[in-house]
Design brief:
By secondary structure, the protein is mainly α. The chain has 20 helices and 2 strands. It has helices at 8-35, 39-49, 53-66, 71-83, 87-100, 105-121, 125-134, 141-154, 158-172, 177-193, 197-210, 215-227, 231-239, 241-244, 253-262, 266-280, 283-296, 299-312, 316-328, 337-351; strands spanning 354-355, 362-363. Strands 1-2 form a two-stranded antiparallel sheet. A hairpin with a 6-residue loop joins strand 1 (354-355) and strand 2. Helix 7 runs antiparallel to helix 8, helix 8 packs antiparallel against helix 9 and helix 10 runs parallel beside helix 12. The longest helix is centred in the first third of the chain and has 28 residues, at 8-35.
Length: 392
């Protein structure tokens, strides 16, 4: 048994006393720091919690005047000015702090970080980049890389964007594979426009190597092969989409048909698209299938396709296709068929759209990157189609 030492009875009260004293010192320090903030600061906080931003700005401005030495109050005001879009005032506030105050290196870094955000939001990307690159504090690394990546994407500096995204992957553990694959596709698109097809192919293969499900890369590889007259190779690339994301097959259905047509094998093309439609029931596949059948096999066969679709999945699109086939076959059982068909076309044309799943932006065309929020692959592969129920 361990013998109890009586001298511990003297040590325990001593340490207890030290803890009590340190706690008292901390409390006094907190009270002292809180009293440094003027009443206007706390009033501003109240307005913030109730989303009264203009009144909050007025209160924080009064607080800065009352205690001009508090950098924290300046930060609060600057952040609020930036949030409400008053970027010129936010920039002026932070520039004034940098130029007219003596402060520690850490404080300078904090102000530079705030000012970099101001410049970024104002679209002054060069100034923002310069400030961000000057930040040496490790605690700002992830913050710095995120804004730099946004800058490089907005300025379409794709090589820099790739390097920055790869660094972000390392320090954050978050995958940027999808984004990087699109950066490679953007590089390839520029190469295609400048007729540098060999470099374009290399970039697209890198995109697939980075992200195996990069549908866009296979579409572009197929496009390049088609332009070179390599139709079998083009079809092979487009068919790979079925094993990546089959919901995107509608984007290449007409390309596949055209390639088979160039080989004088339109029936093989029809068979391929028909199989895709039987499996995946995509409206864009139906569009391509219907148009190809009506051009190559006649309106009777197209009418049968439209009738079957209308029975199984009623929609104005299928109804429009039925009337189109009837009009071409000169079926006079329905009066004013052209007028009915045009009315349906106008309705569909006004109400079919793609909608971004990230921000809700709506557009008539498919985009790989949302024009509003810059998210990648946030548009569904199929446009929203109206049904007969939605017209009631």
């Amino acid at each position: 048994m361990v013998e109890f030492e009586f001298w511990w009875l003297l040590v325990i009260p001593f340490f207890f006393g030290l803890g009590w004293i340190s706690a008292r010192i901390d409390i006094k320090q907190i009270i002292s720091e809180s009293t440094d903030f003027p009443a206007a600061y706390f009033k501003g906080l109240h307005y913030l919690t109730t989303n009264q931003y203009e009144k909050a700005i007025e209160s924080f401005t009064d607080a800065v005047k009352a205690n001009n030495n508090s950098i924290e109050i300046h930060f609060a005001l600057g952040s609020l000015l930036r949030k409400t879009g008053q970027l010129d005032k936010a920039i002026s506030l932070h520039v004034d702090l940098l130029e007219n105050r003596e402060m520690s290196i850490n404080q300078q870094e904090s102000i530079k970080a705030e000012l970099a955000q101001d410049y970024f939001n104002a679209g002054l990307f060069d100034r923002s980049e310069e400030l961000l690159l000057s930040l040496s504090n490790e605690s700002y690394k992830k913050f710095k890389f995120n804004i730099l990546l946004d800058i490089y994407v907005k300025e379409r500096e794709w090589e820099k964007a790739i390097k920055m995204a790869e660094q972000l992957e390392k320090i954050s553990g978050v995958s940027f594979r999808k984004e990087i694959s699109h950066y490679f596709c953007e590089i390839a698109t520029s190469m295609i426009l400048s007729k540098n097809l060999s470099q374009a192919k290399n970039s697209l293969l890198l995109a697939i190597d980075k992200h195996k499900s990069c549908v866009r890369a296979n579409i572009l590889l197929g496009d390049i092969c088609e332009n070179e007259g390599k139709f079998d190779e083009a079809i092979s690339y487009w068919k790979k989409i079925e094993y990546q994301k089959p919901e995107y097959l509608g984007l290449v259905a007409s390309k596949i048909i055209n390639a088979y047509q160039s080989k004088n094998k339109i029936s093989e093309g029809l068979s391929t698209v028909s199989r895709y439609y039987d499996l995946y029931k995509l409206k864009t596949l139906l569009d391509t299938l219907f148009e190809t059948v009506i051009s190559n096999e006649g309106p009777k066969r197209a009418e049968k396709i439209a009738r079957n679709e209308l029975i199984q999945r009623p929609s104005l699109l299928a109804l429009d296709q039925l009337f189109q086939a009837l009009a071409i076959s000169k079926n006079n059982q329905i009066d004013n068929i052209e007028l009915i068909q045009q009315t349906i076309k106008n309705t569909i044309g006004d109400r079919r759209f793609y909608s971004c799943t990230s921000c809700g932006f709506k557009g008539r065309q498919f985009h790989w990157q949302c024009p509003a929020c810059n998210s990648w692959e946030s548009f569904p592969s199929e446009p929203k189609d109206i049904t007969l129920d939605e017209t009631k």
